[in-house]
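Task: sequence design from structure.
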């Protein structure tokens, strides 16, 4: 487990709309653009092997895309190379961060100086959600998966630790980039679960208000 003192002030960032990484989560990525191939190669030379996943946002009326203020850094824990030179990697979520400023020049990919303050619990033990009602939550999730024509291993969901269940669904469900950012920025596991339930209920309602969690 990494400590705050292990976290660098500057990291490479990978702006990817809709891609969500959360602390203690795992995100597989397929890397093929030359600038990001270079990013992976440089990352593997560092002691920390961290890459910051962050979502770009469009500035209204300009078409300009800026980085969101908060992202999540993941440690490169899995790597393989295909015959045609692409990389298949896995990032293990370590901690969220707040962007201080973007570093200009020197690399083909983007880098930022970041602040890790305020996210100390990301480096701690698995979070608990004392108000979590698994049976009600899985019933709601079942309606959502049916409506969205999604499939899953229900036996694994029933047995998964609460944090793993909530964070995995937050990462995998087909929400908008804005909704993913809200899930990322949730200050606690309980808040993230409440946000997740709200998003699922909204998708189920379709404006009718018929589907609500009891």
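Answer:
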């Amino acid at each position: 487990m990494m400590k705050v003192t292990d976290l660098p002030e500057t990291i490479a960032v990978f702006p990817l709309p809709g891609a969500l990484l959360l602390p203690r989560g795992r995100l597989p990525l397929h890397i093929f653009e030359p600038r990001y191939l270079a990013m992976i190669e440089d990352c593997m030379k560092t002691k920390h092997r961290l890459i910051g996943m962050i979502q770009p946002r469009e500035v209204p009326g300009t078409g300009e895309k800026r980085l969101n203020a908060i992202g999540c850094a993941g440690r490169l824990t899995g790597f393989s190379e295909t015959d045609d030179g692409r990389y298949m990697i896995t990032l293990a979520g370590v901690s969220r961060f707040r962007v201080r400023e973007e570093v200009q020049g020197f690399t083909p990919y983007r880098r930022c100086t970041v602040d890790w303050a305020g996210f100390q619990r990301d480096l701690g033990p698995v979070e608990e959600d004392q108000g979590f009602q698994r049976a009600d939550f899985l019933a709601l999730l079942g309606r959502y998966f049916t409506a969205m024509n999604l499939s899953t291993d229900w036996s694994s969901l029933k047995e998964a630790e609460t944090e793993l269940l909530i964070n995995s669904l937050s990462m995998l469900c087909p929400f908008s980039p804005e909704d993913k950012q809200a899930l990322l920025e949730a200050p606690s596991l309980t808040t993230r679960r409440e946000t997740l339930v709200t998003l699922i209920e909204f998708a189920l309602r379709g404006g009718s208000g018929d589907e609500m969690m009891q």
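The chain has two domains: 4-123, 134-205.
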